[in-house]
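Entry for flavin mononucleotide complex. Fields follow.
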Amino acid sequence: MKIGLFYGSTTCYTEIAAEKIQQVFGDEIVELNNIKDVSLAQTADYDFLIFGISTWDYGELQEDWESHWQELAEIDLTNKIIALYGMGDQIGYTEWFQDALGMLHNVTVEQGAHTIGYWPNQGYEFDASKALTEDESQFVGLALDEDNQYEQSEQRINQWCQQVLEEIAEIIS
Ligand SMILES: Cc1cc2nc3c(=O)[nH]c(=O)nc-3n(C[C@H](O)[C@H](O)[C@H](O)COP(=O)(O)O)c2cc1C
């Protein structure tokens, strides 16, 4: 099994999380792709994908994802299994926490992807987020906060990777 992990990262936090996720799955399984350097057309090489994004500037997309947004709206993600993770700051930007994760989730669903890896929203404090499921019980992907909860990130990543593996196993069985 190969998983293509595509991420955009302005100050390297999403990139460091990508490397940790790769370590957990193993580098024979997860291939890292910084979208600053690669085309999203390369998602076609994988059945399983992980997308990583940070939120910037009061609920805006990370800049490399923003530059690929049009391309993303044109790629076919039907039959792809996609898990998402996001980086945000729940105290500094409490009204826009992880908004870009929610925007990326919406577009992947619109492009036909089957999304997995939803994550409970307990243990966070924020006023609003576009990254919540409709019933507001979960984030639509793993929510990491290196600004305020960096000590929890490793455990969250380990647990989430395990969850993603179990969800994939269920789908392909
Ligand atoms: C100027 C600025 C604006 C930000 N805006 C938001 C925001 O609107 N929502 C949020 O959840 N986090 C916001 N953040 C926090 C970043 O998402 C967080 O620092 C993240 O770890 C950056 O990841 P990256 O270095 O991979 O891009 C902001 C950070 C900065 C410095």
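NOTE: Residues 9-14, 54-59, 62, 87-89, 93, 96-99, 146-147 surround flavin mononucleotide (CB under 6 Å).
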